[in-house]
Amino acid sequence: MTASPQVNLRGKRALVTGGARGLGASISERLAQAGASVVVADVRSEQAQAHCRSLKEKGYEAESIELDVRDPAAVAAAYLEFDQTEQGVDILVNNAAVDVSKPIEHLSAEEVTRVVTTNLLGPMYLCLESYRRMIRRGGGHIVNILSTASNRTWTEAAAYSAGKSGLRAFTHTLFKEAQRDCPGIGVTGIIAGGMETPFVLDRFPGADTSKLQSPDIVADTVLYALSVPVGSVVPELVVVPRSETSWP
Questions:
Q1: Does the predicted TM-score (pTM) go above 0.85?
Q2: Which end is more exposed in the chain, N or C (fewer Cβ atoms within 10 Å of the end residue's Cβ)?
Q3: Where are the alpha helices (H) located in the chain, listed in sequence order?
Q4: Which among 60, 79, 131, 160 is annotated as catalytic?
Q5: Contact, 88 vs 133, CB < 8 A?
Q6: 160 belongs to the catalytic site
């Protein structure tokens, strides 16, 4: 992609989890550029605040909230606060994710719980809160960031693949229910290949970055999903580096 898709999101509020850095930061900036009021949600409150300051300095509308997606009570409380402002969440992007790259033999129960809760249950908690509100308002769009690990797996990726595979299944089910419940609600899963972000480079500092894609490309893919006119919807998109080894 050489240019971002053209979509007007003025008057829309977009919530991006894990929005403080990496892919989340790219997505939140792209949405802000398109006119959305962006809520940057992250457990890294200082980084989220810094990213919001950067967006505001560029003339965009943004706010940050500290949010641990693993905590359903915290997720519910955040949505109650959104309700009080009389502007709900029109666009939800479930991007927050973690990984522990270890053989199954050496994984601990705590590590498995952290990965699966963050990557699967967290997005489900957010979807539950968003979806019922979107039904009442008659529209909205939910984008779940998936991974090539949701389609196939490799060694040292057991918990991550389990979480992302589960999220893909949940996304497909939500799409079908939205078709039944409310034609104004879009649901899209985006299967993203390796990106040049801290999520990859912090764990694999020696990774060949020439084989990774820019997170901006994936952020543009999110915009594309949001650009489809009412009456159509993109249920799933795949965007991977040309040299991706984990697809198909």
A1: yes
A2: C
A3: 22-33, 45-57, 72-84, 109-116, 122-137, 158-181, 198-201, 215-227
A4: 160
A5: yes
A6: yes
